[in-house]
Each structure stands twice: as C-alpha cells, then as structure tokens.
Amino acid sequence: MLRPRWIGVLAVCLVVAGVFAWLGQWQLSRAIDTSPPPPGSTEVVRPLDDVVAPGDYLEEPLVGQRVDVSGTWVPDDFIVVSSRFNDGVEGYWVTGQLRVTDSPSPVSLAVAVGWTSDKAQAEAAASDLSAQAAASPALVDLTGRIISDEGAAVPAKTDPQEIPRMSPAALLSRWHDTADLEVYRPYLTAAEPMGGLEAISSPAPAEGSNVNWLNIFYAAEWAVFAGFAFYLWYRLARDAWEKEIEDLEDAAGETAA
C-alpha cells in the first residue's frame, strides 16, 4: 500500500473526497435560511412589481403573497377553468386577462375573478364580464394573492377546449391582442369576486420551516461519497496486496516442489 502507485491513487482519492466535502458543506449552508420571511409577511399587501417581474418565476417564500395591481380587462378573454375546489367543493373559476398599466410595453396578468359550482353559471358570468369590458374599458384596482403557475395539462378527451389547470401559458393561447405581449408567469386570485360569482377560497399559506431537510439529506450523501472514495482506495490496494501474497506463496510452493 505504500508503493508510489498506490500513494498516487490515494492522493487522487483525497482530492475527490475534498470536492465531495466541499459540496456537502455547500449543501449545509443552503439548508438553513438565516433570514426567513417574518411571520404574517404574506398578509401585507405589496405592489405586484415589488414581488415578481413579468416572465419571472415566483420565489417560494412569496407564493401566496397579497398584492395589488391596476389595469384594464381585455374583452372576450374571460375564460372558464375547471376542476377548481372551494372548501372541498369542486367547481369552476372564471379568469380574465388584465392588461397591467404603467408598463412601457404590453404586459398582462391572468386573474381568477370568482368561483361557482355550476358550469353554466360560470360560462354566463364569463360572457357578461366580456360584454362589460367591451362596453366600458375602465381602469380597475385589484387585490389578491399571487400564486405560482400550475402548468399546462393534457386536454380532456371529452372536451379538448376545457382547461383543467390554472396556467397562464394555457390561457395565453386563447387570449386576444397578444402581439409583443409580456405575461406574468404566476396568476392572481382576486379577493373580491366579480360577475355574481362566489369569492375564491385562498387562505394564507402555512408558515414554512427555515430548515430545508432535503439539502441536509444531500449533504449527508456527499459525506458518504467522500468516505466511499477512501474505501475504494483501500479495497483496490488490499486486493492488489493479497494478489501479490498469493503469487509469492505459489512461487514458493513451486520452488519447494
């Protein structure tokens, strides 16, 4: 084991183990958030642009943050989204395209304006809201919770036009006047319902722990990998040593014979 060849292999293992140890330390440093958001911070209403920018992903601590935003509704872009639950009851959301003001270029935000358990009522509300937006394109001020995009879903076989998940990307494919349009990735659940619909149940997010146990698990994995590097060197060197001993014993046996 003290031969130059195996000392060189040991040096390589030391370098590899050092890299693994550094990665483990890095994971540990990310495992504990030393400056978590204060309790109740999501309930303080903040301007939308202070929370997320158009096209950006919503950071985890800000999911459910109450925000306010101003804009105008785009006519004919009130769309029904299915599979929406309000306090355990399945129903429908009516969503709209809000063209945000105070932006140098066109920017839109998907907004869920209300809930109902009846599909016909949801479709009627969407039609009425579209007609109102076309008749009087007034500026509106909204307050609600900003929520991460749920992602698009495979269209239902029974109705390919049905949207079963709240995804601004999926709604964008149905919106009008989208040339050079920027879109917020998350969506807003309005605090006050519209169109005779019920308010969307959107409680405050649960306070999370400032300890990320997944990162701690990864740090432990890197420690195991570092130990395995030394074990691999020991096993290879010992196997080579045992092979040399066996060869010497066989040679000695042949000489005696």
Automatic annotation (TrEMBL):
It is a multi-pass membrane protein. InterPro entries: Surf1/Shy1. GO terms for cellular component: plasma membrane. It comes from the Bacteria. It is found in: Cell membrane. This is SURF1-like protein. Transmembrane segments: none annotated. The keyword Membrane applies. Keywords: Cell membrane, Membrane. Coiled coil: none annotated. Belongs to the SURF1 family. The keyword Cell cycle does not apply.
